[in-house]
Amino acid sequence: xxxxxxxxxxxxxxxxxxxVAWDQPAGDTVVTFAVRSKNNVVVTRDxxxxxxxxxxxLDAVPGEKVEVADLNNVSENEKNKIIAATQKANASFxxxxxxxxxxxxxxxxxxPDKSTDKIDxxxxxxxxNKPADTNKPAGQAPEITSDLSGKASTPADVTVKAEPGSxxxxxxxxxxxxxxxxxxxxxxxxISPINSLPEGQITATATxxxxxxxxxxxxxxATRAEKPEVDGGVSRANDNxxxxxxxxxxxxxxxxxxxVRVTAVASEMQNLx
Length: 273
Description:
Mean pLDDT: 84
Radius of gyration: 26 Å
Largest sheet: 7 strands, mixed
């Protein structure tokens, strides 16, 4: 409401809300609410909105590997299959996200805010007609030793205990490989995820030299850190004009919804903005 005009208002309920644009720049914005009484007394209250970086929200992961006839010359049809598999594995990505696959199967993802992610071909393609060897001994299931609480959407390394020399793969909640490393002589593999660590259950497997892939490890849950949010309060003037805003600080990602309630009370109100 801008002005009361000839009407008499003693209370007005309003709100500040909507969906944060996908291309909203990261940083703080201060929104100031104000109510003016008929006595020309103005009461204000601020809301600080912190928008986090889009790339912290989106965690690109490779989809199911696509069989290709020539690893050095990926066909257009094979490229389309790579894109389709990646889109399926990242179904929450916003409209306008672009995918580009080069001749060797490397993928570049461009988000609406023009930031990018890259996924190496080794996570996306596999030679066609590759025979499976079922006689290789399976490795022993490894153990994830990192505490992943609050580590989702960060570039946190994950430490895995496995047989020395084995190749350790890290999987997300959907069973997609998100990183791999070789265990050192002490039986420790330190894996840097392809992008930031996704939220959800994380598992690992180990494949010893000359052996086959082990069963998956006991899952460890990666959670996001708490997003700062501070309750609001009431500002009052001497004539008892009051302005209530339910939050004084909120933290959001692009694409998330904002809903903050605003209530103004006065013996007689001129405007609320």
